[in-house]
Task: inverse folding
């Protein structure tokens, strides 16, 4: 077989062949699973057809600050954002929180299902990619994990999610922009005031170039906003002018 322009280098086609072989072997050993129910998927599927109804994008009207669903457009802000002042400009919450989404995120964080994040990254880019690009972002900044938790888990789910979104939208990712200097308790066990206090002590600015003026924080769940607020405060301290947030899931107010 003749190739236009001459035969390709052996390293070129052998590398491609090895890549395809690797993917085939990995697919055989670790077949893709549904990010919602964890069943093995049929070829070409990204999610079980029966699980598609579990993917419920956050519905309007939305809080103009955090992005959660609210009962009335006249309110403009959810109750949480009326009670608290946040440093970020505004945020996006992709999905309405549910038992199924909770279990999916728990499998990512505690049972090694990092491959789900590719699906959620693609979903994020598909649902709000155009809006993210309209913000003229300099970078995506994942919410950091403390080094001890990172060592135990082996990866930061927010960083992997940000990397997939960044890959699809051609946006750089700056995981070193923030540091978690304290290994905080599980926030679900704390009241809102305790969450805010612990997180403000835990997050510090990292390596932030002067050119970084507009960023979007990336995390998995938005609850009271304590984590996003601590990260926003640290970025403001470092001179970042525009700060937005993207979280996979949160509870609607209605």
Result:
């Amino acid at each position: 077989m003749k190739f236009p322009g001459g035969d390709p280098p052996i390293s070129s086609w052998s590398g491609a062949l090895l890549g395809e072989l690797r993917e085939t072997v990995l697919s055989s050993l670790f077949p893709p699973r549904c990010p919602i129910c964890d069943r093995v998927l049929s070829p070409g599927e990204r999610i079980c057809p029966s699980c598609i109804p579990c993917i419920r994008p956050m519905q309007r009207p939305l809080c103009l600050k955090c992005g959660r669903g609210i009962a009335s457009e006249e309110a403009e802000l959810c109750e949480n954002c009326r009670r608290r002042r946040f440093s970020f400009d505004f945020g996006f919450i992709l999905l309405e929180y549910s038992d199924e989404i909770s279990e999916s995120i728990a499998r990512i964080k505690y049972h090694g299902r990092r491959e789900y994040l590719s699906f959620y990254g693609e979903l994020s880019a598909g649902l709000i990619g155009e809006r993210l690009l309209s913000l003229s972002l300099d970078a995506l900044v994942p919410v950091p994990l403390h080094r001890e938790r990172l060592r135990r888990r082996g990866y930061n789910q927010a960083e992997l999610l940000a990397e997939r979104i960044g890959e699809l939208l051609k946006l750089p990712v700056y995981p070193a922009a923030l540091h978690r200097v304290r290994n905080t308790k599980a926030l679900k066990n704390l009241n809102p005031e305790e969450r805010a206090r612990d997180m403000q002590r835990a997050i510090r600015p990292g390596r932030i170039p002067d050119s970084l003026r507009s960023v979007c924080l990336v995390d998995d769940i938005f609850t009271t906003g304590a984590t996003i607020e601590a990260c926003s405060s640290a970025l403001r301290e470092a001179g970042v002018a525009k700060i937005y947030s993207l979280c996979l899931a949160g509870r609607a107010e209605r």
Observations:
- Strands lie at 90-96, 139-142, 178-180, 203-205, 214-222, 242-250.
- Helices lie at 10-29, 79-83, 99-110, 116-134, 147-153, 157-169, 192-202, 226-237.
- The two ends are 64 Å apart (CA to CA).
- The chain has a mean pLDDT of 89.
